[in-house]
Structures are given as C-alpha cells and as structure tokens.
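U., I forgot to send this yesterday:
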Amino acid sequence: MKPEKIIDISMELSGVTPEWPGDVPFSYDLSVTKQESGSVNVGKLQTSTHIGTHIDAPFHYDDQGLKTHELPLDIYLCKAQVMDVSGLKKINSSDLKPLEEGVTAVLLKTASWKNRTVFPETWPVFDVSIAQWLADNGVNLLGVDVPSVDPETSKELPMHQAMNRHQRFILEGIVLDDVAEGIYRLAALPLKIKGGDGSPVRAVLYS
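Result:
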C-alpha cells in the first residue's frame, strides 16, 4: 500500500555537507563517464560513516558492540514520535512528552542546527536520564537533529555510553525543521556494511 505522505528528514550529501571536525569529508565524482565507457556513468564515493544523517552502531563507542551489519532492522522501521524541545540548552527526561501507544522511536526537535552547510559550534546537552527513560518506556531508538547525542569535545561520551548500557540505539543528524510534533512511521535503514561502526541513512517519515 502506497504511503499517503512521505517527509524526507535526511541531510543532502554533497561537497558542502559538513563532516565532523577532522573526519573524512564527503565527495562524489564520476570515475567513468558515459562518453568514456560508451554506455554508462559510474560514480565514486568517499565519505565517513558518520556524515549527514546517520546511525551509530554500538561498535562505534564499544569494541564489543554490535556492528552495522548485525543491527536489528526493526529498530529503524517503526512507529516514531516527534517531540519539540527547541529552546532548551539541556534536555532531561522530564522535558520529554507523554508517549503515544506503540511508539518505539523518539525524535527530538531542538531546532539548533540552522545552517546545514556549517558544522555547529554547540548544540543542546542530552542528559543521561533520557536513556533510562527510553528503556523504561520500551523505546528503542533516539533520533536527534544535531551531529551527536554528546558534545563535540566530549571524550567520555556519557550519553552514548548510557544508551549502550540500556541497549538503546542512536540516529543523528535528522532534519525536523518543518516537521510538526506528532506520530509518524519512520524508515531509516542503515547500509549492510560488514564490520561497520555506523552508516549514512535516507531517513523518512510517512503515514
């Protein structure tokens, strides 16, 4: 059955998509042109696994964690609730809204990343109490509209580690600027990268 409406919540990948400072920038080139081959254009990608809209596999922050090809796909194909927490510099579990029945993904709209061609200097802090709240409420996936659930300068990664302890999963870099609070179906499937630590995704909401 065809969805009534599809909302793309993915960042576009191009030469102006900002990478994490020091990481591999995104590039796409034609390695072979139709003129050269006589039949087809063939492209070549170079990128970080954590560019734009992407998921973190637990292996990203835990040497014993699940790798990208081992992730359960139902985590990323589910009923999601968008919650508007814009304006807050620190987001605690007490800031989250009551859950609708059957929701297994929470997507937080902070509205703090205005220019997606520039890596943001700061973004809201996500308190580790959120991970416990997700586990207590049967929510498997947390999505955020910023590059990470932890600050750029953090080495301890308290939120990543809290999510890992509670066996919750992470989706980062989603675009919720024009998305209203509410209930949606989410599809944000990672590529099947053997041994991977994460993957860019084409994340969409639909109904």
